[in-house]
User: Fold this.
Amino acid sequence: MDIVYRLEYGNYQEAEMHLRHTLELRPRFQPAQDALRQMEAAPATQLHGNTVFIIIVLVSCVLFSILSTLESAETDDCSSEGGRLSGRSGSRATRGRCRRSV
Assistant:
């Protein structure tokens, strides 16, 4: 029973260890042989849906924070340069980088 529980919840290493121990004690125990064959045939890495969802959410949050930081830094640069630079050269410098809303 313990092996079935471990397999259902993705504890494959523990389940394999228990199955191999079972086969050491009873080498011809068919359910343990079948379960071990199924585990060996299964792909090595399995991601659960929840894990994929969490990864997607975390990546989205990181990208959002990076983009919002870049936007706020650009806005701060434009507002501070408008007051510091004067004359024709100052207006040319800010004209290319900072867009002003009308």
